[in-house]
Every structure is written in structure tokens, then in C-alpha cells.
Amino acid sequence: MPVRLKKFIGTIVLILLVVVYAVLATAYASLHLADASGWVHLAYFFITGILWVVPAMVLIRWMETKPKG
Q: What is the number of structural domains in the chain?
């Protein structure tokens, strides 16, 4: 697969990942953490704000691999 195509696909998937992840994390917090303290909200959003980086790193690593051959 050409590098330009991999980067295009990866960019689209990365944007979708961030949008879907943010909506799901916020919806979960709204449903389950409504009565929690501010510290719980802070910890939750800090952790979920960092967790999306893991799949993004895997995707970016895939985008940067050189074609075989």
C-alpha cells in the first residue's frame, strides 16, 4: 500500500477514533459520574484523556511503516 494512501486512511481513522472516544467517554461520565465529586471527575477525565493515546500511537506507527519491497 502506498505511503500516501496509508497516511490518508490513518488520518481519517485517527479523527474518527478521537471523536468517538470523546463522545463515549463523556457519555459514560454523564451517566455514571453525575453525583460523584469533582476529584472523581478530574481523575476520570485525566485518565481517559491519556488513554486514547495508546491506540493513536499504534495507528501512527502503522502509518509510518515503509512499504515492503
A: 1
Name, in order, each residue with C-beta under 8 angstroms of 48's C-beta and a sequence gap of 6 or more.
21, 25, 29
Per-position pLDDT tens, the chain of length 69? 888 999 999 999 999 999 999 999 999 999 999 888 999 999 999 999 999 999 999 999 999 988 776
Residue 69 lies in a domain: no
Domain that holds residue 44: 3-64
Decide if 10 contacts 65 (C-beta within 8 A): no
pTM (2 d.p.): 0.80
